[in-house]
Amino acid sequence: MKNAAKVIRVLEKAGYEAYIVGGAVRDYLLGKTPHDMDVASNASPEQVKKLFSRTVDTGIEHGTVLVLLEGEGIEVTTFRTEGAYSDMRRPDKVEFVQSLEEDLKRRDFTINAMAMDEELRVIDPFGGREDLEQRVIRAVGNPGERFQEDALRMLRAVRFSGQLDFSVDPGTLAAIQQHASLISAVAVERLKNELDKILINPRTERSMCYLKDSGLTRHLPAGVLLEMDWSGYEPQAQAAYGWAYMLYRQGAEFPAVKGFKFSNGERRLIENALKAARLERWDAWTFYCFECKELEIAAYLSGRNVTPQQEKEALPIQSKRDLAVNGIDLMQWTGKRQGQWIRQWIESMERKIVFGQLPNDHEKIKDWFLDEYHRHA
Ligand code: ATP
Ligand code: MG
């Protein structure tokens, strides 16, 4: 807040108007710490850049410049309106406007369409404060029209309901029900971003009920899988928990959600967490083979009361790298060439060592190996 106020003062001193806008005003009025600060101004990006020594061009064509002050980034956006989102990614065109009010009018919900000046005076043309008090999410203007401009707003309404523990205004909800099918045209990256936020927000179940009641689930990549009973889910800091929970509870596999375009890392995390959660029992080999994070999610899913990190640290070796021998040793001892056989022997050694049946000692491993090798030969 302090740095945003500074940015506003500098802009005002130079003769421009400037306000804190959007989520930061909402969170401030709710007594929460806003996690990012947006400032709206009638200054153009070029004019903003002239006034601050450190800025980053984050979206000049949309009128946005990031101002860096004491390590904090404050987005300064020129007052603008936007047209339809025909590619459902970004507005076809943004138009710069002169007044704050026109800028606030393009925003999605009344609680997100307030501004605050440097003295913390609130500018609230659409009744956002009252809706905050009533704990309602209500579209600015005609909800149907607003959802036709950008269908993602329907999912944002559902997301904010859980994030803030608010209800969705009946008129706004009815418009979502009416226009639900439009959501299928929105870029999946934007959809996934909102669903991730639903899965980490404090009232996932509330959002998921709205998702189902609004009819949106039917038009999303995971479809009816999302319609399950979420009452047993305790939201976690990472969305992967929620995705894995949904698949685990319904005996489904990762491909059921892959339409959301997960990163490879996230996909692996979810797949391995599911695999581990579904194991009948966990032993030292389980702790050796899976990553800590994967086991943490798996433990949550299967209700296991273990601390994966401790279990992993207690193992004689943490990975192949810790093994006192390697493939070259094996080739020297046997005079054989590289091949699949090495991998199999290394894994046998890892198992023995992990289970405490063989010390991780070069000579001891060699003795064991030569013994076994000749017995099999
Ligand atoms: P949070 O950051 O807590 O998720 P936020 O309200 O800051 O919530 P952002 O997505 O960061 O949400 O957007 C900032 C502001 O921009 C919103 O408060 C809203 O005024 C406006 N906004 C964002 N996305 C849209 C949209 N799709 N349509 C209309 N206005 C939007
Ligand atoms: Mg924000």
UniProtKB/TrEMBL annotation:
Pfam families: PolyA_pol (PF01743), PolyA_pol_RNAbd (PF12627), tRNA_NucTran2_2 (PF13735)
Alphabetic keyword roster: Magnesium, Metal-binding, Nucleotide-binding, Nucleotidyltransferase, RNA-binding, Transferase, tRNA processing
Domain Poly A polymerase head positions: 18-138
Domain called CCA-adding enzyme C-terminal: residue spans: 256-368
CC cofactor: Mg(2+)
Record-level Gene Ontology MF annotations: CCA tRNA nucleotidyltransferase activity
Domain tRNA nucleotidyltransferase/poly(A) polymerase RNA and SrmB- binding: 165-221
UniProt-listed Enzyme Commission number(s): 2.7.7.72
InterPro entries in UniProt: Bact_CCA-adding_enz_type3_sf, CCA-adding_enz_C, NT_sf, PolA_pol_head_dom, PolyA_RNA-bd
Methyltransferase among keywords: no
Protein family (similarity comment): Belongs to the tRNA nucleotidyltransferase/poly(A) polymerase family.
Family matches, as PANTHER family: CCA TRNA NUCLEOTIDYLTRANSFERASE 1, MITOCHONDRIAL
Name the record gives this protein: CCA tRNA nucleotidyltransferase
Native source organism of the sequence: Planococcus chinensis
